[in-house]
Amino acid sequence: MFVAEAAAYIQSANVDLIQTDAVRNAVVARIDLLDANFLASLNGYVKAANDGGDAQLSELLVAVADEVLRQVALRLPSAARVLDLALKQRDKDARVQVLKSALDGGAGEIPAAEVEALLSTTSQFIDDMEEQESIADRALLARMCLVREELRWVELERSFGGESFPSSTSRRANVPQRCVAFMKELMAVSDSLKRVGLLDRAFSKDWDGAAPQKKATAAAAAAAAAAGGKSSPDFVRPGRFLSTLHATKEELELDAIKHALVLQRLEAILMESVAVLDKLQRTTVPAADSKTAPPASP
After folding, report:
1. What gap in Å lies between CA 277 and CA 283, rounded to an integer?
2. Which residues touch 195 (CB under 8 Å, ≥6 apart)?
3. Is 14 helix (H, G, I), strand (E, B) or coil?
């Protein structure tokens, strides 16, 4: 009903009103009435229009879908909107510019956001993706992990400059034991290229060979029962692995002199992980057009 009503409104709009404005007016007037199934239904209409050879209607429906997504994004919390804008950027410098602009109070379409809210939102999205039985888009997950690492770097950079930021919280409630085992295996590999190969294999798919699976325990069974019988997939996934790596580093840094060599190897593994994720994030996630690059922060 929405599609038919909106299409009629747009097609009968004053000729002086360009299609973009007509679409926006139609969507804004009805956005609060749409449910979670609307976009799926709209995609069906687009396919039907394409199959029927009606290019004009197809173009109109795609414009409606794009505007719905834009309006939904505008209603998201500021941290989620910043994350969305950062994830549209394939290049690290462009993502960092989005993050810095947000932390500096916002610029253009980039809203202001606090570093703690950005870290929390990014971590929540990563956890939500990694809790699924299968990961639908590993390139998107890789880019999300990179955004979280880039937030840490920005936070660290600004702390050296005298700015005060809340301490980033990357630790999971329960450190995944399989990630710990995989980290220990990597620590024992002296060849950087071999470590990169192992990381690439573990991040690119759910690889059973990444580390031994944890044994079933009564506690794990109880936790699964509390979650409705659904347990977390037992694989080494990048967000979990990086959280494990950071938690280990933070603990060892309490006595950095004693653990200097171990910390050096962990830092190397962290940089190798980032390099693997950068390669992975370039595979399928579309890059933003250079014309829409974020404005420089003041």
Report:
1. 10
2. 186, 189, 268, 269, 272
3. coil
Say how far apart CA 188 and CA 22 lie, in whole Å: 62
Distance CA 90, CA 297 (A): 19
> Residue 298 pLDDT more than 50?
no
Task: Output the six-digit token pair for 291.
Answer: 């014309």
Q: Which two tokens mark 92?
A: 């690290």
Are residues 224 and 230 in contact, defined by beta-carbon separation less than 8 angstroms?
Answer: yes
CA-based R_g, the chain, Å: 23
* Alpha carbon distance 40, 244 (integer Å): 37
- Estimate the share of the chain in helix, then strand, then coil, as percent rounded to the nearest 5: 65, 0, 35
Residues 6+ apart with CB under 8 A from 35: none
CA of residue 89 relative to chain centroid, distance: 11
Structure confidence by residue, pLDDT tens digits, 174-186: 678 899 999 999 9
Cβ neighbours of residue 278 under 8 Å, at least 6 residues apart? 92, 142, 146
Helix crossing, 115-130 with 138-160: angle to 10°? Answer: 160
Q: How far apart are CA 141 and CA 259, in angstroms?
A: 31
pTM given for the model: 0.71
For 8, half-sphere exposure in the C-beta direction (CA atoms, 13 angstrom radius) is 5
Let me know the angle formed at the C-alpha of 88 by 269 and 71, rounded to the nearest 5 degrees: 140
Neighbours of 100 (CB within 10 A): 18
Is the per-residue pLDDT at 235 higher than 80? yes
231, two tokens: 């347990």
148 neighbors 220 (Cβ within 8 angstroms): no
CB atoms within 10 A of CB 31: 16
Closest CA to 151 of 194, 184, 119, 180: 119
Alpha-carbon dihedral sign for residues 43, 45, 47, 53: negative
91 and 98 in contact (C-beta within 8 Å)?
no
